[in-house]
Protein backbone atom coordinates (compact mmCIF):
# COMPACT_ATOMS: atom_id res chain seq x y z
CA UNK A 1 0.00 0.00 0.00
CA UNK A 2 1.22 3.54 -0.77
CA UNK A 3 2.19 5.62 2.22
CA UNK A 4 -0.92 7.52 3.22
CA UNK A 5 -1.11 10.70 5.26
CA UNK A 6 -3.74 10.83 7.98
CA UNK A 7 -4.78 13.78 10.16
CA UNK A 8 -6.13 12.73 13.56
CA UNK A 9 -7.75 15.55 15.54
CA UNK A 10 -7.80 14.21 19.10
CA UNK A 11 -4.65 12.19 18.42
CA UNK A 12 -3.05 13.18 21.73
CA UNK A 13 -5.25 10.92 23.86
CA UNK A 14 -7.44 7.82 24.06
CA UNK A 15 -8.80 6.42 20.81
CA UNK A 16 -7.04 8.97 18.61
CA UNK A 17 -3.67 8.20 20.19
CA UNK A 18 -4.19 4.47 19.66
CA UNK A 19 -5.20 5.10 16.05
CA UNK A 20 -2.00 7.11 15.55
CA UNK A 21 0.02 4.22 16.98
CA UNK A 22 -1.54 1.62 14.70
CA UNK A 23 -1.26 3.79 11.57
CA UNK A 24 2.39 4.56 12.26
CA UNK A 25 3.01 0.83 12.68
CA UNK A 26 1.51 0.34 9.17
CA UNK A 27 3.91 2.90 7.73
CA UNK A 28 1.40 5.74 7.31
CA UNK A 29 2.39 9.36 7.87
CA UNK A 30 0.39 10.79 10.77
CA UNK A 31 -0.42 14.32 11.91
CA UNK A 32 -1.97 14.63 15.35
CA UNK A 33 -3.86 17.73 16.47
CA UNK A 34 -5.38 18.91 19.72
CA UNK A 35 -5.56 22.08 21.78
CA UNK A 36 -2.76 21.41 24.26
CA UNK A 37 0.81 21.51 22.92
CA UNK A 38 1.94 19.75 26.08
CA UNK A 39 -0.41 16.78 25.57
CA UNK A 40 0.63 16.60 21.92
CA UNK A 41 4.31 16.53 22.89
CA UNK A 42 3.64 13.78 25.45
CA UNK A 43 1.81 11.77 22.79
CA UNK A 44 4.64 12.26 20.31
CA UNK A 45 7.12 10.99 22.90
CA UNK A 46 4.88 7.99 23.69
CA UNK A 47 4.73 7.14 19.96
CA UNK A 48 8.45 7.64 19.29
CA UNK A 49 9.20 3.91 19.48
CA UNK A 50 6.74 3.27 16.60
CA UNK A 51 7.47 6.31 14.43
CA UNK A 52 7.57 10.06 14.19
CA UNK A 53 4.29 11.99 14.14
CA UNK A 54 3.86 15.60 13.12
CA UNK A 55 1.81 17.63 15.59
CA UNK A 56 -0.21 20.82 15.22
CA UNK A 57 -1.83 22.62 18.14
CA UNK A 58 -5.31 23.72 17.08
CA UNK A 59 -8.75 24.18 18.62
CA UNK A 60 -11.25 22.99 16.02
CA UNK A 61 -13.94 25.11 17.64
CA UNK A 62 -12.19 28.09 15.96
CA UNK A 63 -12.36 28.46 12.19
CA UNK A 64 -9.01 30.32 12.01
CA UNK A 65 -7.33 27.41 13.80
CA UNK A 66 -8.84 24.93 11.34
CA UNK A 67 -7.66 26.99 8.34
CA UNK A 68 -4.14 27.17 9.82
CA UNK A 69 -4.20 23.44 10.64
CA UNK A 70 -4.82 22.52 6.99
CA UNK A 71 -2.24 25.03 5.75
CA UNK A 72 0.31 23.21 7.93
CA UNK A 73 -0.84 19.70 6.91
CA UNK A 74 -0.63 19.95 3.11
CA UNK A 75 -2.18 17.08 1.09
CA UNK A 76 -4.00 14.39 3.05
CA UNK A 77 -5.57 11.01 2.38
CA UNK A 78 -7.82 10.81 5.42
CA UNK A 79 -9.18 13.08 8.16
CA UNK A 80 -10.37 11.65 11.48
CA UNK A 81 -11.83 13.49 14.46
CA UNK A 82 -12.00 11.89 17.89
CA UNK A 83 -12.10 15.31 19.60
CA UNK A 84 -14.54 15.96 22.43
CA UNK A 85 -14.72 18.60 25.14
CA UNK A 86 -17.28 17.30 27.61
CA UNK A 87 -16.20 19.33 30.64
CA UNK A 88 -19.36 20.07 32.64
CA UNK A 89 -21.60 18.38 30.06
CA UNK A 90 -22.91 15.45 32.11
CA UNK A 91 -25.48 17.25 34.27
CA UNK A 92 -29.22 17.19 34.82
CA UNK A 93 -30.92 20.00 32.89
CA UNK A 94 -31.19 22.53 35.77
CA UNK A 95 -27.43 22.35 36.32
CA UNK A 96 -26.28 22.09 32.72
CA UNK A 97 -24.74 25.40 31.67
CA UNK A 98 -25.32 26.57 28.11
CA UNK A 99 -21.58 27.30 27.80
CA UNK A 100 -20.73 23.66 28.57
CA UNK A 101 -23.38 22.44 26.12
CA UNK A 102 -21.95 24.72 23.43
CA UNK A 103 -18.43 23.39 24.05
CA UNK A 104 -19.72 19.87 23.34
CA UNK A 105 -21.25 20.99 20.03
CA UNK A 106 -18.22 23.13 19.14
CA UNK A 107 -15.78 20.25 19.64
CA UNK A 108 -17.88 17.34 18.36
CA UNK A 109 -20.16 18.90 15.70
CA UNK A 110 -19.05 22.33 14.46
CA UNK A 111 -15.36 21.40 14.74
CA UNK A 112 -15.79 18.28 12.56
CA UNK A 113 -18.02 20.31 10.21
CA UNK A 114 -15.21 22.89 9.89
CA UNK A 115 -12.76 20.04 9.22
CA UNK A 116 -14.98 18.94 6.34
CA UNK A 117 -15.47 22.52 5.11
CA UNK A 118 -11.77 23.37 4.96
CA UNK A 119 -10.23 19.91 4.67
CA UNK A 120 -12.19 18.18 1.93
CA UNK A 121 -10.39 20.11 -0.83
CA UNK A 122 -7.06 18.84 0.57
CA UNK A 123 -8.12 15.20 0.32
CA UNK A 124 -7.24 12.77 -2.43
CA UNK A 125 -10.32 11.55 -4.40
CA UNK A 126 -10.10 8.17 -2.63
CA UNK A 127 -9.93 9.99 0.70
CA UNK A 128 -12.26 9.82 3.67
CA UNK A 129 -13.48 11.71 6.70
CA UNK A 130 -14.44 9.85 9.88
CA UNK A 131 -16.28 11.40 12.81
CA UNK A 132 -16.70 9.87 16.28
CA UNK A 133 -20.16 9.86 17.87
CA UNK A 134 -21.10 7.47 20.71
CA UNK A 135 -23.53 5.22 22.53
CA UNK A 136 -25.24 8.12 24.37
CA UNK A 137 -27.31 8.75 21.22
CA UNK A 138 -28.70 5.22 21.22
CA UNK A 139 -28.95 4.38 24.94
CA UNK A 140 -29.59 7.80 26.48
CA UNK A 141 -29.37 8.27 30.23
CA UNK A 142 -30.17 11.14 32.59
CA UNK A 143 -27.39 13.80 32.53
CA UNK A 144 -26.52 12.88 28.94
CA UNK A 145 -28.93 15.06 26.94
CA UNK A 146 -26.38 17.19 25.10
CA UNK A 147 -23.99 14.33 24.42
CA UNK A 148 -26.90 12.25 23.10
CA UNK A 149 -27.93 15.14 20.86
CA UNK A 150 -24.51 15.78 19.38
CA UNK A 151 -23.88 12.10 18.75
CA UNK A 152 -27.19 11.74 16.94
CA UNK A 153 -26.52 14.88 14.90
CA UNK A 154 -23.18 13.52 13.71
CA UNK A 155 -24.89 10.64 11.91
CA UNK A 156 -27.08 13.04 9.92
CA UNK A 157 -24.09 15.26 9.19
CA UNK A 158 -22.19 12.29 7.79
CA UNK A 159 -25.15 11.20 5.61
CA UNK A 160 -25.38 14.70 4.13
CA UNK A 161 -21.64 15.12 3.57
CA UNK A 162 -21.32 11.64 2.05
CA UNK A 163 -23.62 12.94 -0.71
CA UNK A 164 -22.22 16.47 -0.99
CA UNK A 165 -18.52 15.58 -0.91
CA UNK A 166 -18.62 12.38 -3.01
CA UNK A 167 -16.40 10.65 -4.07
CA UNK A 168 -14.82 11.48 -0.71
CA UNK A 169 -16.34 9.07 1.78
CA UNK A 170 -17.75 10.29 5.10
CA UNK A 171 -18.50 7.92 7.98
CA UNK A 172 -19.06 7.78 11.72
CA UNK A 173 -17.77 5.37 14.33
CA UNK A 174 -20.00 5.11 17.40
CA UNK A 175 -18.13 3.75 20.42
CA UNK A 176 -19.65 2.29 23.54
CA UNK A 177 -17.85 2.69 26.86
CA UNK A 178 -14.11 2.64 26.28
CA UNK A 179 -11.44 2.97 28.96
CA UNK A 180 -9.70 6.26 28.09
CA UNK A 181 -8.75 9.46 29.94
CA UNK A 182 -12.17 10.97 29.10
CA UNK A 183 -13.60 8.98 31.99
CA UNK A 184 -11.82 11.25 34.46
CA UNK A 185 -14.15 14.03 33.20
CA UNK A 186 -17.23 11.79 33.09
CA UNK A 187 -16.97 10.09 36.48
CA UNK A 188 -13.76 11.14 38.30
CA UNK A 189 -12.80 8.67 41.04
CA UNK A 190 -15.91 6.59 40.36
CA UNK A 191 -14.74 5.77 36.84
CA UNK A 192 -13.17 2.33 37.56
CA UNK A 193 -16.25 1.10 39.45
CA UNK A 194 -18.65 2.36 36.76
CA UNK A 195 -16.61 0.78 33.99
CA UNK A 196 -16.42 -2.54 35.89
CA UNK A 197 -20.19 -2.55 36.47
CA UNK A 198 -20.84 -1.90 32.77
CA UNK A 199 -18.45 -4.68 31.77
CA UNK A 200 -20.61 -7.16 33.70
CA UNK A 201 -23.72 -6.05 31.78
CA UNK A 202 -22.34 -6.14 28.26
CA UNK A 203 -22.71 -9.22 26.04
CA UNK A 204 -18.94 -9.17 25.41
CA UNK A 205 -18.20 -9.11 29.16
CA UNK A 206 -15.69 -6.29 29.01
CA UNK A 207 -15.27 -2.56 28.43
CA UNK A 208 -13.92 -1.35 25.12
CA UNK A 209 -10.24 -0.76 24.51
CA UNK A 210 -8.99 2.18 22.43
CA UNK A 211 -7.66 -0.35 19.90
CA UNK A 212 -11.18 -1.71 19.32
CA UNK A 213 -12.24 1.71 18.04
CA UNK A 214 -8.98 2.39 16.18
CA UNK A 215 -9.56 -0.87 14.25
CA UNK A 216 -13.04 0.31 13.27
CA UNK A 217 -11.81 3.70 12.07
CA UNK A 218 -9.13 2.00 9.96
CA UNK A 219 -11.86 -0.16 8.42
CA UNK A 220 -13.97 2.89 7.54
CA UNK A 221 -10.94 4.70 6.11
CA UNK A 222 -9.89 1.84 3.89
CA UNK A 223 -13.11 0.17 2.77
CA UNK A 224 -13.93 1.94 -0.49
CA UNK A 225 -17.61 0.91 -0.28
CA UNK A 226 -18.20 2.48 3.15
CA UNK A 227 -19.78 5.93 3.04
CA UNK A 228 -22.65 7.41 5.02
CA UNK A 229 -22.17 4.53 7.47
CA UNK A 230 -22.40 4.50 11.25
CA UNK A 231 -20.25 1.70 12.63
CA UNK A 232 -21.39 0.72 16.12
CA UNK A 233 -18.57 -0.67 18.26
CA UNK A 234 -20.17 -0.91 21.67
CA UNK A 235 -19.81 -4.48 22.92
CA UNK A 236 -23.56 -4.95 22.45
CA UNK A 237 -24.47 -1.99 24.68
CA UNK A 238 -27.42 -1.02 22.44
CA UNK A 239 -28.97 -4.43 23.11
CA UNK A 240 -28.96 -4.49 26.90
N1 LIG B 1 -14.31 6.83 25.99
C1 LIG B 1 -15.60 6.50 25.91
O1 LIG B 1 -16.14 5.72 26.71
C2 LIG B 1 -16.45 7.10 24.79
C3 LIG B 1 -17.75 6.60 24.63
C4 LIG B 1 -18.53 7.09 23.58
C5 LIG B 1 -18.04 8.07 22.74
N2 LIG B 1 -16.77 8.55 22.95
C6 LIG B 1 -16.27 9.57 22.01
O2 LIG B 1 -15.09 9.08 21.40
C7 LIG B 1 -14.23 10.20 21.06
C8 LIG B 1 -12.83 9.94 21.60
O3 LIG B 1 -12.93 9.86 23.01
P1 LIG B 1 -11.68 9.50 23.95
O4 LIG B 1 -12.25 8.69 25.04
O5 LIG B 1 -10.55 9.00 23.13
O6 LIG B 1 -11.37 10.99 24.52
P2 LIG B 1 -10.05 11.65 25.15
O7 LIG B 1 -9.08 10.61 25.59
O8 LIG B 1 -10.53 12.63 26.18
O9 LIG B 1 -9.42 12.45 23.92
C9 LIG B 1 -10.06 13.58 23.40
C10 LIG B 1 -9.09 14.29 22.47
O10 LIG B 1 -9.75 15.40 21.86
C11 LIG B 1 -8.92 16.57 21.93
N3 LIG B 1 -9.81 17.72 21.89
C12 LIG B 1 -10.84 18.02 22.73
N4 LIG B 1 -11.44 19.16 22.34
C13 LIG B 1 -10.77 19.60 21.24
C14 LIG B 1 -10.92 20.74 20.40
N5 LIG B 1 -11.88 21.68 20.63
N6 LIG B 1 -10.07 20.90 19.35
C15 LIG B 1 -9.09 19.98 19.12
N7 LIG B 1 -8.92 18.86 19.89
C16 LIG B 1 -9.75 18.69 20.94
C17 LIG B 1 -8.16 16.36 23.26
O11 LIG B 1 -6.96 17.10 23.35
P3 LIG B 1 -6.94 18.59 24.05
O12 LIG B 1 -7.74 18.47 25.31
O13 LIG B 1 -5.50 18.89 24.25
O14 LIG B 1 -7.58 19.48 23.04
C18 LIG B 1 -7.85 14.86 23.17
O15 LIG B 1 -6.73 14.65 22.33
C19 LIG B 1 -14.94 11.44 21.61
O16 LIG B 1 -15.70 12.03 20.58
C20 LIG B 1 -15.87 10.87 22.68
O17 LIG B 1 -16.98 11.71 22.90
C21 LIG B 1 -15.97 8.09 23.95
List the helices and strands and how they pair.
Blueprint: E1 5-9, H1 14-26, E2 29-34, H2 37-47, E3 54-57, H3 63-73, E4 76-81, H4 98-119, E5 123-132, H5 145-164, E6 169-175, H6 182-187, H7 191-201, H8 210-222, E7 230-233
Parallel strand pairs: 1-2, 1-4, 2-3, 4-5, 5-6, 6-7
Helix pairs in contact: 1-8, 3-4, 4-5
The structure holds NADP nicotinamide-adenine-dinucleotide phosphate (NAP).
NADP nicotinamide-adenine-dinucleotide phosphate (NAP) is lined by residues 9-10, 12-16, 34-36, 39, 59-61, 82-85, 107-108, 111, 132, 134-135, 175, 177-178, 180-182.
Plain-language structure description:
The chain is an alpha/beta fold. The protein has one domain (5-177, 211-239): 3-Layer(aba) Sandwich (Rossmann fold), CATH 3.40.50.720. Helices cover 45% and strands 18% of the residues. It has helices at 14-26, 37-47, 63-73, 98-119, 145-164, 182-187, 191-201, 210-222, and strands spanning 5-9, 29-34, 54-57, 76-81, 123-132, 169-175, 230-233. The chain has a seven-stranded parallel beta sheet with strand order 3-2-1-4-5-6-7, sandwiched between helices. The structure holds NADP nicotinamide-adenine-dinucleotide phosphate. Residues 9-10, 12-16, 34-36, 39, 59-61, 82-85, 107-108, 111, 132, 134-135, 175, 177-178, 180-182 line the site of NADP nicotinamide-adenine-dinucleotide phosphate.
